[in-house]
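Structure tokens please, single chain.
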Amino acid sequence: MRSLLDGDAEAVARGVEAVHDESTSILSYNNENSLSCVISLAFYYARNDYVIHREYASDKGFADLVLIPRRNVSKPAVVIDLKCNKDAVTAIDQIKQKSYPAKVAEYLGNLLLVGISYDRETKQHSCRIEKA
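Here you go.
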């Protein structure tokens, strides 16, 4: 979580990749739901500071994962979108186009948009982090 908050996209990608490799059966490795579970596992300890929502509904779709800071926690809210076989920029663009941040509007100015991408052939992960 520290890498994400520090904006270290490369470290986040490496961490997610490690959890994906260690925690996912080869039979379901390329499943997008498996990647979503991997993300939840990778950020498991964030539950100390955040309420974590999977498939968080907005007016135009669902954000894959939203982390809302618990009361008295001065950390940014986080909106995460996952993509398979697309780049992390595409995930960030979808967050913006589908207005996912509108659901956590009270955190604007203190909000991170995170796109995490996974290439099914190379099994490489990438990440992009933007402040909103």
